[in-house]
Amino acid sequence: MAETNRQDLQLSADGTWEPYAVFTAEDEEIDELGEALRAKGWESLLDLGSDDNIGFEINLYQRRPDSGHPEYLLAVWGNQIGTPFLKVDNLPAAMQLLSQWAPAMQAASIAHVVSDLSAPYIDHHGLVETLAARAAWGVQERLPALKQDRDQRDREAAERRRAARTPKSP
């Protein structure tokens, strides 16, 4: 259940943050945030991270009000708590917000991979195990084509070596 009394913010034309209410007291109790946002016209545009694996998640939503130009809403979530929604009126401002969160997302992603690599156990749904399984499957799936390609390259290289050693007639 999401909070309806949090202090969401909107970036004003002069670059200051002002209060903004994504949800009002008149809104019914929110059981599923995605559905509640869709009911307000917001559609998911971008989801980065996962609070299950990385520790936090960034969600960017978009809607086109009657004015026709899109608006954007950004939220950062971690462990069932999130930042206030941040509303901006154009894509460059949304990209600026994302770029400010990018270093934290990158650091959390790298920390997750390092942690997974150094774990003393096998996690059957872990990142490293998933990549290893995909690589093994891909090698098995592509092995005949890879061997055929390697054989063809070897034949071509041998032909070039033979041609280079063959004396040229005057």
Automatic annotation (TrEMBL):
Residues 147-161 have a biased composition (Basic and acidic residues). Residues 143-170 are annotated as: Disordered. It comes from the Bacteria. This is Uncharacterized protein. It comes from Actinophytocola glycyrrhizae.
